[in-house]
UniProtKB/TrEMBL annotation:
It comes from Lophium mytilinum. Residues 1-33 are annotated as: Disordered. Residues 1-10 have a biased composition (Pro residues). This is DAO-domain-containing protein. Pfam families: DAO. Residues 13-24 have a biased composition (Polar residues). It comes from the Eukaryota. Residues 64-456 form the FAD dependent oxidoreductase domain.
Amino acid sequence: MSNPTNPTPPATVKNSQPESTTTPPERFGFPKQGSRSLSYWLQSVQGDPLLNHRTTPELPKSADIVVIGSGLSGTLITKHCLATWPDKTVVVLEAREFCSGATGRNAGHCKPDQWRGFARYEEAFGTQHALKILQNEQQTWSDLVQYIRENKVACDLWVGDTLDVPVSQEAANFSRHSFERYEAAGGRVDHIQVTHDPAEAARVRNFTELFVLRLTGAQRSRIKDAQACYSWPASTLHPWKLAAHVMRDNVSKGANLQTHTPALCVKESPDTPGKWIVECERGIIECSKVIHATNAYSAALEPSLRGVIRPCPHMCNRVEPPSTFSAQRGLQNSYGVLLSNEALFSINPRCTADGVVLFGGSNPGQKQFEEWIERHPDRCVDDSLVDFGCITDAVQTFAESQLVGWRDASTDPEVLYGKSWSGIIGMSADGVPFVGQLPGLPGQWICAGHQGHGMARIFTAAPGLVKLMNGGSWASTQLPDVYEITASRMKGLRQRLAKDMAVPRL
């Protein structure tokens, strides 16, 4: 199944000697130019004029605000800048096509974490901060759904129960521990349905039972080795179409979108104190405020972020379901399938659209993929990668061994599993985003490091950032305190990174 033009590691990777005596050097890079993989979302909008839009033929020489990046962060930040300062000029710079980075390459979920990450957040930041993180995600999801409905955004919105299903005892034990810790800390759980009975969690052995359960509203996983099942409201959607709706409105209100305009560096203006120069391949633009909304690419433009925000490629597989999982027999919920060693499948059945099933997350093949990236650091921002064998094989193995009735199909595996794409996630050194003014750089702002979870954070992070830009306090943003980028947070992370660099890799 592997594409010969793309790297495929062996089924197992063994090294008898340490790869190096220290951890790898900092990884960073600009958006890849030239050939790239075509995501399911981008493939569906080929020919849309917004992809290559330039509001003006020439790059403006100056602006009040320059937003770098046109994904959901940059697009929503632009929206709130225009609402806050309708008389100011806003230019949006995009290195490639509109919304062709992580937003245009994700798995299509807006799934607020309502319990799963609590134990780790509590360990890292304390109980109250952990509660605030999860409360913010619920608010973000609510705001996103409200915006889509009120503005009648045509983005294939689905709202229903998402299921988290641990399929190993290790995953089940950790899930239960985190859920019980969250409940004991006062976290809201009345909207979460839970069963810890494996037989009940895995129920639905035939389609008659499936039909009856749908009539009664019961939720079961349809996963053979389910050890438990947690369900709560969440969404899936077409992320590019959502961002495009917002950007079209931005342009109609005066925003200047410039695609295929890579920003190369940001430096102080030599002529005007307090202003910045953004150097691009197509020229320079002077401005008072710069907003870094490039997520995984942030450290390429701003050196102080190197090691703090790291690009990490991930794969997503588009699977054509067999006839046994088509139409009314298809999956009707989104999923997080929780495995041992913190591996995860996210599953998005496009039940509001064409019925294909998207598999994302950090599946069991992701570790080999990341090991390959460590050996080829120049590929850390390469989103041309497709059909990485160990990841695609993990999807096939899971679907055929765990989804009840899937393996009975006679469909050619090449047809079922033969399409995939890559995207670059912005990983944060402490696991949460960076929002606020860059320390020591007055007038430069950032919203990045979303850890592959931006859809459940950006709809509140973007307006929060603009409130700060307008002189508001951090409290006015209602964002978790641990999201704020501060000098002390950056210092602590750099000290931790320096210590890690001295630890041998064995």
